[in-house]
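Input chain follows. Return structure tokens only.
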Amino acid sequence: GKVVVGITGNIATGKSAITRLARDNGALTIDADHVVHEIMDTDANMQAAIAVAFGNEVRLPDGRINRRTLGKIAFNDRSALQDLEQIIHPAVRQEIAKRIHDTDKKIIFIEAIKLIEGPLVDVCHQVWVTRCPKQRQLERLMICRGMDAETATKQIDIQAPQEEKVARADVVIDTAGLMRETEAQFEMAWGRLPAPADASPITLDLPVDGAAPTTLPAEGTPTKPAEPAKKAEDSSLKRPIPTSLKKKLGRTMPGKPKPATTPPPTAATSAPTPKPEPVQPPPQTAKAPTPTSTDVKVEVRRARPSDIPSILLLIHRATEGALRLKRADMLMALSERSYFIGQIGTDIQAVVGWNIENLVSRIDQIYFHPAEAISTVGKAIVESIEQSADQHICEIIVAFLPQDTQSPLWQLFSDYGFSPAEFDKMPVAWRAAIQESQPENTDFVIKVLRERVTHPM
């Protein structure tokens, strides 16, 4: 038997934090948003259907969906969002059903913002809903996703009221308080889950690749599961680094470089890109110089919950009061990503947020105060991030820099081998990582750590 729990809640209410806790407790976790991204990147029929509904401008030259362009359409028009959901949700449900069927895990958590609006809820033994005040949602979108207040407000307001989900919940987890309070609510709900052997059978009545509906029986009932259909392998993930990208990586950044923004999408009828020839990685001689030692003792370490007051103060100073966060929001951010702190003595002068997913390391939050810390503390932080990314076998590091960034910050990354790159010349996995995580009003620079694009983990 298997126990399936659906996690839902409006945007920025803490669903991912609950999913992480479930994963830490040994459950299989399925993020419906990630499934959507995979389908948009690999399913040619889905790509064509979305282009018919929303226009060829939502497609990239290689045929994949430009999620940033599509999102600007869907999140500004409720009817457009509903049309998109009608197109994509059936395929998402089929893929989730397949993963439930194939896993050996006894407890499965499905994170989906639209869980209760469709038939996916019917395979769940319990529905857990996260909630928090709208102001908390707004602050989390601004700190964790780099949105401005107007964009964040639109994304919140286009969704149905939280009360509609709460009314359908078996468990409600309030994430407005401290993280330890959220964890306590999770542990209580986890302890009340039914035993897999006692769980009612799961009927996966969503066809998978044309197969008949499948029932997963209770524990001990003999069954012969259907042979899972083989999924076509995405050979584009094995593509070597294009020669054009290699040339870009050798380019220097004198002062602030030309913005490396995502190019505008073109029609799907564009001529196909020739298959690139294998190339060698950038020569070792191009490695960034090691900073000269100074008398200043710099310490770089991972942020801890006890650092939150100092982090909030530094962010307030670095943004001249433009970004004012609460402790609860910073604590939630710490549960979703890593932060490096740079300090001299006891004086914290830098906070840098970063994360790793699918072999791509991403730096998306950078705060320094005073500005002079860029040339001291900044060097040590970049070195620490590169070391950690290398240990995690990352292929590239992407740094998202605000378009109004001062020259010393650009120079810092240039000194360590980062440079702009042509978005449409990059391997597909890298483009997808950049497209789904680039904050508004930023440019990106990258540093390649490894030669070939491999299968993401």
